[in-house]
Automatic annotation (TrEMBL):
Keyword Acyltransferase on entry: no
Family as reported in the entry's similarity comment: Belongs to the class-II aminoacyl-tRNA synthetase family. Phe-tRNA synthetase alpha subunit type 1 subfamily.
GO biological process annotation, one example: phenylalanyl-tRNA aminoacylation
Name under which the protein is recorded: Phenylalanine--tRNA ligase alpha subunit
Enzyme Commission code: 6.1.1.20
GO MF terms held by the record: ATP binding; catalytic activity, acting on a protein; magnesium ion binding; phenylalanine-tRNA ligase activity; transferase activity; tRNA binding
Aminoacyl-transfer RNA synthetases class-II family profile domain residues: 117-318
One GO cellular component term noted in the UniProt record for this chain: cytoplasm
Catalysed reactions listed for this entry: tRNA(Phe) + L-phenylalanine + ATP = L-phenylalanyl-tRNA(Phe) + AMP + diphosphate + H(+)
Top-level EC class as recorded in UniProt: ligase
InterPro entries: aa-tRNA-synth_II, aa-tRNA-synth_II/BPL/LPL, Phe-tRNA-synth_IIc_asu, Phe-tRNA_ligase_II_N, Phe_tRNA_ligase_alpha1_bac, Phenylalanyl-tRNA_Synthase, tRNA-bd_arm
Species of provenance: Candidatus Allocopromorpha excrementigallinarum
Subunit note: Tetramer of two alpha and two beta subunits.
Cofactor binding note: Binds 2 magnesium ions per tetramer.
Amino acid sequence: MQTQLNKILEEAKAQLEKAVNIEETEDIRVKLLGKKGKLTEILRGMGSLSPEERKVTGQMANKVRGEIERLLEDKFEEVKAAAREAKFKLEKIDVTEPGREVKLGVKHPITITIEEVSRVFMNMGFSIVEGPEVETVFYNFDALNAGPNHPSRDMTDTFYITESTLLRSQTSPVQARTLRKQDPPIKVISPGRCFRCDTPDATHSPMFHQIEGLLVDEGITMADLKGTLDRFAKELFGTGTRTKFRPHHFPFTEPSAEMDVSCFKCGGKGCRVCKGSGWIEILGCGMVHPHVLEVGGLDTEKYTGFAFGMGVERAAMLKYGVDDIRLFYENDMRFIDQFK
Ligand code: DAH
């Protein structure tokens, strides 16, 4: 039995030497010290020995068991450390590796222009309102005094959805909506998308943007209109900018005008941007027609107001020297990246 014990110890040593991971080590432990393990069986069989033999063999068996337990403990420590090491290697981060660049988006030039114009008017106390892009014929035309025979109502100019709904062809319906919703003093601007049945070319797009403005209160005159819009032009294009108002016609204003600004490129001498005239047309405006105020439910004896509307693409094209409106909608980053 003692030779058997010695053999077990030698075998255990040899096996543990070869074991390379936790599983193999555990396997060896079970085979020796487990319930049916070799050493366990020997210890169990000691009952059949004589008392003297039992004493000697018992001592030896305990020694062998102690030795094996110690060997196992060492081996477990070794393979666990190795396992940890392997895991660390797998998870290692190379901090010297160059990072992957995240490409940041930029604001679209149309957004930039809307924000700049909005900021100027907000600094003058205007607030921003919005209206629907799918609009009723009533708000887009009737409420704005565009009679049943007005040319802009034509199917070839406006996208109709049904007989009574359409894609708004201007932001002016927001004027009519605001007049019904708010009591004076009203001081709002409304940027947004508009739609017209235009074939795309360098200066036309079936979808474009406008910014509408409306100011209504007691005692508002053409002088307020001129003062406000002149101030706007100076804020947006520079303090040296001059303005000029030319008579025009819009159904929803009376009198109506178009405002020109002195060319911000040449200062008025005449260049390619202003086509030699020294002036650039920038917006339409006028005193709100009494019919429009009436439809809005206002007392026209008491209240007057002015309104204006400008094309955002046109302003952006002039400002940035873009000569084709279609560039705004192609989303080519090489184009859009230039307006940062
Ligand atoms: N809605 C006009 C257009 O699309 C622009 C405009 C002109 C708006 C004069 C106004 C205004 O509010 O008073 O051409």
